[in-house]
Design brief:
Layout: H1 28-35, H2 54-65, H3 77-85, H4 101-104
Amino acid sequence: EKYRATHEIQHQVTLTQGVWFGKYTVTQEQWERITGNNPSRFKEKSQPVENISWLDTQEFINTLNSTNEGIFRLPTESEWEYACRAGSATAYYFGDDIGQIDDYA
């Protein structure tokens, strides 16, 4: 891949279990319902929560899991990359041409 860092390599990974992703981002309203606070800098209940850390996210997930609504977690790096690549082996899910990034980003 033309723009990758020298320490990044593409290698074969096998996902041995199914993985499911939320269809939508967690909104500020959902975050506040679970945690009791809204840390977002740009307040708008229907918008994605932002201004949170990995630790904040772990606390959110632990609280959510305690409600017996399911078992939730963040994806592994391999799961996330698989989802982002959409089954492709190119630099971007739409191909290798960075000149097209404005059409997709």
